Amino acid sequence: MSEGNRFFIGLAIPEAVKQELRTQQECLQRISPEIYKMTELNNLHLTLYFCGNTDEETMVRIGNGLAEMNLTQLELQIDGLKRLPSNDVPKILSAGVCSSSRELAAMQQRVHDLCFALAENKEMRPFAPHITFARLAHGVPPSAKPVKRAIAGLPDLPAVRWRVDDIGIYSSELTKQGPKYEVVRTIPLS
To answer: Which of 15, 36, 50, 105 is the most buried (most CB within 10 A)?
Structure first.
């Protein structure tokens, strides 16, 4: 980890889920290739907390704190197409994610409490679990008819289930080609 990088805490996405989201991306590209910019499959993840520009020492403390929590494995499931920030203003297209009980929300709250106390960024937005697979292209108004047409042509997302065995600390680098994410530490779940 290098000093002052952007970091976040997240969960990796398995290949089966990536392939379902790739199907959504291919459909969007066929309907309206200029409307949405696709997230690279290797960058797909579920963010639990965005730490922002945080130094290495703090991220080590966060990682050690996560390891000491004895967070448990959980089952997640795709929960339909989510349009963010709202259905009427779909700047981000994502797959919603849920757990069978409140396991995911409970895990995220514990991660939030730790990171909020230590990280530079003080995340205030409510947790809305999702996996972003497309973002509105720069300069395209979210209320434009082509945007609505592109979204209307998307197939339903199947409720793929998967088991989460670890939590990751990711480094985020913004480049002209888009963000590049790298897992810098993995913490196994019990």
So the answer is: 36
Structural domain of residue 35, as residue ranges? Answer: 6-184
b/e code 68-102 from CB counts within 10 Å (16+ = b): ebebeebebbbeebbbbeeeeebbbbbbbbbbeee
Q: With a threshold of 0.85, does the pTM exceed it? A: yes
DSSP alpha helix (H) spans, 94-169: 103-118, 145-152
Whether the CB-CB separation of 23 and 58 falls below 8 Å is answered with no
Whether 104 shows a pLDDT value over 90: the answer reads yes
Asked if residue 95 lies in contact with residue 21, where contact means CB atoms within 8 angstroms, the answer is yes
Amino acid at 131: I
Written as one string, the DSSP assignment of 63-89 is HHHHHHTTPPPEEEEEEEEEEEE-SSS
76 in any annotated domain: yes
Over the stretch 70-102, which tens digit does the pLDDT of each residue have? 999 999 999 999 998 887 778 899 999 999 889
